[in-house]
Structure formats: C-alpha cells, structure tokens
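U., I forgot to send this yesterday:
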Amino acid sequence: MAGNEPQDSNQSVSAAIPGRASIPDTPSLSFVLHTADAYFDIPDPKSQPPPATTQASATAPNVNGESMKPSETTQPLNLKALKEYEKLGLTGNIISACANIPYAVGITKDGKFELTPRPGKSMLRDSLSYLSSSNLWKHTVVGWTGEVLPALSAEFGELLTRKDLLGPSSPTGEGRQLGSVAVHDVSGSGFNSAFIQHFKDNEPSIRDILITKDRRLELETLLEHAFKDKIVPVWLGEWTDDRHDTLLLKDQTRWKRYAEEDLYQNLHSNIDREDERADTAQTFADYKRLNESVADGIIKAYKPGDIIWIHDYQLMLLPEIVRRRIPSAYIAYFHHTNLPPKEILTMLPRHTEVLKGVIGASVVGVASDGLRHYVEDYYRSSLKLTGDGNGVVKTGGRHISLINVPVGMDITVVQQGAYGEAKVEEYMHEISRRYSDKKLIVARIHPDRPEGTDFLLRAFEHLLEQYPEWKSRAILILLSNPESIHHSSKSRTSRADTALHVVNINSRFGSLVHQPIVYPNLKIPAPEYYALLRLADVGVVASDYEGVSTMSMEFIVCQQEKFSPLFVSEKSIISDDTSSAAVDQSAQAANTATTIRNGLAMSDEVKQSKHKALLHYFSEHNVASFTNEFLTKACASFAKYCPYENAAELEQAVLLKAYQSSQTRLFMFDYDGTLTPIVSDPDAALPSAKLLQALQKLASNKQNKVWIISGRSRAFLSKTFGDIKGLGLSAEHGSFLRKPGDETWENLAASMDMGWKAETDKLFMSLCEKTDGAWIERKEVAIVWHYRNAIDHDACLARAVEAKALLEGEYLKAWDVEVMLGKANVEVRPRFLNKGVMAARLVQETFANGTSGFVLCAGDDTTDEDMFRALLSSKLKMDNVFTCLIARDGKPSLGYYRVKEPADLVEAVAILSEQ
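Result:
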C-alpha cells in the first residue's frame, strides 16, 4: 500500500514521565502520542536488543520460543539479612493505611453484614496482596469501612468458604457463612458496573443507618482474624449517645467529597473555576476527620518498630497527624496518582495544608524520577524548605527522603485472566467474526480528563481524512472506566461531548454496515476486555495527566501473539507549561494520525522487537519489585535519619507549667529501668531515698493520683512501697491491683485457666538447659525466661525469637495469652491484662467527669507501650499529657518525650513534688 512504509514513531518526550529517569529540557505544549518503549525509556531495539524472557508455564504463549514470567531478580526484603537496619528495632509488621478497607460492607434487612471484595485500584490491591502473602512480613490494613450499603444479592458470586478466606495453611472450616457476616466472591464478569449501579440505586436508602457497638465489634473481630491480613476498619458517623454505643451513618459520601471532587480533580488538572463549590470548608473538615479517624485506627494496631505505609491522595493529611501522635514512628507515604503543574496545584483549596501533611512522613515515594524532582522543587520553592537537590528536604529539624520507585502490578493475574479462561476465547471468536476484515484500535479514555479523548477523536478523524484506505478498515474502540460514584460536572459534560463527537464521526465516515467508532460507555466484562486487548492491532492510552495506566501493562501481557504496538499520551506526565495557545492543534492532530497509521502498518519484525522489550520491562517492574524496592529504600532512609530526629526531650519548664495549671493530676510509672536503673540482680534494684521522698510528697497531695504499674510481684511492691499510703500499686503488668490507702490486693486474673503456665514452663526449662546464666521467674500470673546474665546475648536473642514463635503457635494457641519480648527476657501473660488496660481504667476513674488534666506516664520497655497507647486512644486533651520513654538511643516508641536515664526522670518528679 502506497505511503504505508513503517516509520519509527518515537519522538522526544518533553517532560517528566512516570517510569523515566530524567526530565527533558523542552516543556510539553500539547497532546502527543508516543510509542510505549519511548514512554518507559526502553532502549531502541535496533541498537540494543532486549534481554530474553524466561519460561513461565505450559499454557503461556511463546515469543520466539520464550514466555512471559515476572522477574525474580528482586529478592524479598529479608530483615535478618539487613544488619545495617538492626538499630531500627523493626518488628517486621507493616501497617498499610488506605482510604478504604479491601472489602465493601453491606448490611441486610435483618441486620447482618455482608462483605464483597472492593473493585478498582488494582496496583494498590496487588501490593497489599503481595505483602499479605509474604512470610517475611506481618501485615495490617487500616482504612475506612466505606459507605455501608444494603447488601448485594448473591447473584454476583458464590459465598466463599472459611477455607477460601483463611488460606491453606490456616485452620479451616466448611461453613458458608462466618457468624452473621457473608462474604461474596465477585471476581466474575460484570461486577464493577454492577457494584456502581448498586450504589446509585441504593444511595437514598443508606442515609440513615444505625450500627450498635456489638455489631461493630462483630465485624471488627472477623476482619481481625478471618483473613490473611489483619484488617482494622474505621467507622465514620455521628454518635447517638454519650456512651458511644450506637453510631448513626448519615450522608456517608461526605467523607470523600473533598478528596474526589477537589483534590482528585486538581491532581489531574481537571480545573474549572466556575465549578468551585461553596461548601469547601465543610468538605475539607470531613476530609480531615477521615484522616484523623484512620490515625485512630493506626494507634490501635501500632507497636513501636512497625512501619506505617500510607497510600495516596485520600490520606495526604495522615502522615503529619500520625507524626504528631507518634513522633518516633517509621512513616512512609506513596503517591499513586499524578501531580499537576505547580500553578494548577496552588489553585487547590487548602493546598498548603495538604502538602504539608505529606511531609509528616520520613519517606515520600512517587513513581518516577521526574515526579521526584517535581516534588522536591515544589517543597523548596513553594514551602521554602531546604533541600540538597538529591531528593532530601528538611523541615523542623527532620529530613524527608523523596524516592522514586516504578510501580508494578501482578501480571500473572492478567496472564491467567487473558490466556487461562475459556470465556476469553469465546469472545475472541465472536469479535473476530464481526470484524474479520478490520484493524482494531483499542483506546482507553477517562471521562474526568476529556482533553485527551477529544484530541484522540480529532486525530482519528484526520486518519480517516488523510488516509482514505483506512476509512472502511479502521475501527476505534473507546474503553472508559465506569462512571465514578462521585464525579465533577466537567466529567458529565465530557461524556456528552464525547458521545456527540462519536456520532458526528460515525455519521460522516460510517454506513449501514460500518461504524468507525465503537463507544460502549460502560465497564465491559473482564473476559471481553482481555479478548479485545489480545485482538487489538494498536493500543492507545489517551488519558491525559495520568500516571502509568494499568491498561499499558495489561495490553503488553495480552499481546504475546500479535505484538501490536502501544501508544501513550504525552500528557500522562508532569509539564511545567500546559498552555496550548501557540500550538497549531490541527497540525498536532495530523501528526498523531500519522503515528497511529504507522502503528497499523508497522512491520512484524519491529513490532515483535518493541513488544519483547516492553514485556521484559513489565516483567521486571512488577508488584514484587515495587513493594520490595520501596521498603528497602524506606528502611535505608529510616536508618540514616529517624533514630536521631524524632524524639522530643522532656523539658522541665514545660512539665512544671502544665502541672501547675491543672487541678487533677495522674502519675503512672513503670519501675525497673524507669525509676531505677536496670541491674543484673533484680533484687538489688532498690529505690533511692530521693525517689521515695518525691513519691511520698506527690501522693500526699489530694489533687494527685500516683501509681506504680510494674511487672514486679505484689510481694516486692508491698515490701518496697507499702509504707507510702497514698500510692497506688499494680503488680505483674496489671494482674494485681492495690488502691491508695488500701492494704488488700485485687486479683484481676482469678477466673482465668492457668493451664498454659505448665506448657510454657516446659519450654523455658529446655531453654535454660541450653543457656548458661539464664533463669525462670515464676510469678503468680505471668512466667518469664531471663537471659540478662547469659554470655552470648546474640544466641539468646535468636532463641527468644524462636521461643516466641513456638509459644504463639503449637504450644499456647488454645489460651488467650500474650508473648512479649522484653529487655533480655521473654514473658508470657494473659492477653486481657496489661499495663494499657490498667492505664485506661485509671484515666477513666481519675477524669470521670469528662474533664482533662495533667498526666505523666513514664516507662522504658515494650510493656510500657501499652500505657502510652491507652493515653493516645483516650479522650484526654494531649496538651497536658506527657508520655515519656527512658532510653539513651533513638528506638521507636509511642512515648512523645524522652529522658536518657532514670535519674533524669526522678529529678523531674522531685521538682514537681516540691510545688
């Protein structure tokens, strides 16, 4: 065919592209299509052949005898192998904070809950799934429940069994319903659109739903234990009573309006000045409350040494909120969405507060080096932060590392969906029969970003005009996301404009037997979608101002037989200048038409070479590489900066001012390592005269409630502090209680089955036989294995970790106990009794009338973190609450303040006692 010689349609990319390594010099001025190998910075196959792929499975299609397989070159992050990170004290637990939990929550007419896997966000979902499948990490997901809807009917899928939920390695049962919570498998075709329609149909009926405390607890218990991940749901609504028993869910969509209708639109440069709403103050307040509520959920789940990984634009305030509450936390944020030019970003209502919220994190991640440079430039120029130009900015004495990590998805899922389902073959047969002599151009468009769609349609129109040989042969199929639950008026207008534009082109170039554009305007079933991608002769991602599209990856995986070229929009990028006034749009459309024509006529050799390189790229940059690379870079940054920057020294003047201004005061102290130094012989750890005198004076003041909450036995505490009548005592981490002025002890564990102690004692005895210097402390309730006096502490630590795993598994799984790794010890105790429970009780009793006051709570060990957590979760105003860790190093803690030695704390307490 004349004029159809294949041409290299690569062009210089004019701004930072997700996946590229640098920022080109020339700013982007208009919509341009590039071949995907240029977009992802793939080497030119003519100058550098791509690496070979490896064999995947017997069913995978072959590319010159080779098949697609996700790369295994990125090894899982192994904490034991990362010696340089030992000082971080990582627990191996990751808390993923997301806008929503992974399951949509429905409620039936008789009040039963129903869970349905939530559609969308495939890259994020894949990353969460990867973490939950890892043996190296424990994983907790915290997020809003989302709108609680009338329950979906079972027509969308079969109920999963308990075995399906728990996985093959967990205890299983064959019940088809968990308590009163049904769970649907909705992986079948058509679910996404059905879900959206279900929401629209039922929105009026979800405005007033009452959820009691018992019902909330039922769902929370299921989500905590029944799935591979621990899931912590966050409830948002209004309380109907002072006891917080019943929650009213009303106008549930309010919590995401700012995120979806202001923030999301701005991030994708979808700005319409005339469309600004008058209720932004209220929607931003709701957005802030969503972030604060997720922070509450994190506090519930958090243990010092956990990594908190916050995801995307719905939670951009969350890093700063968590940082204020847990100064030493390891917080990382990843921005999955695109970013607009700076002049557009500054048009966002409350943009400064939003962007400041992000840098509460110690690590901020984006998908490309270009985006990283953009973020660093924004913080340096707009927020006046100092930076080194290499991805580190500084604020308030803290360093924030800006990192780029190419995103990826689980392409094995796409592989299975595209090549392992018979339904796909059926659709392919039907589509091939219908378009037997046509060339299919399959394009993804987005209703919220209409410029790319409009330009693609004009380019296709030019194609039919410039190259009449394609007038009856080319079919453009427009695939659109289902209409979002909440969207801007601009997207509604753009849908109408797109439909009208399609009608005009079809009227002009079509006939009774041929329509050049197919625009279904719905979310097609997955098998049909994969069939289209496999049959496409050209793929186009036309959404402007978007990050890496999942369709890019899906298209390449689906093209292992035809090798058809993929083109992406140049405006799926950051550009410092988006003005198009000086650009000849007609000329640009003509050039794009030529690009598409060249793709249709590209030689098999060139197509196969480009496809092979892209397939290798996506195999390398998969969900495993994304997750592991992000965590590896984050841990490196935490190790470099965090231990030295996030601790606030306890200032005597601030403490004294808060003490003097409060009418009611509560003191809660650990003993060993807090009021006295840790010594090799516990019996030698006796209080100083200065400490006893300070406690006596504090306890004699009727405005003060003073408690020692220790792991020591009640016999030791009675002997040591029994003469101070106004002092409250709690022994064995809250198992025993002696109130001020009382001589008797209350046993809070009296009703518990203690059969677990004999099993624990057996294991601890075997450890003592292997370890010189180790010994067992048999308390009335708890039992402790100590190795403080052992010679080889490294070997003892390894044994302690192993013992903890054994106790939590086969030894004690029948009892509700907790295994704690302490300072050179392993302690087993009842789960429902800990220092946090005692602290919560004392707060409630001391401030029973709802008023706030002064609180000083100090400790040095893991067990004391429960007290800190209880205070953070209380309703007390934090201004006069002092949680203080005694530590010489920068280890992570829920304690806001630090002192280095017990003597420093005793000195501070002594000064207060003189007031």
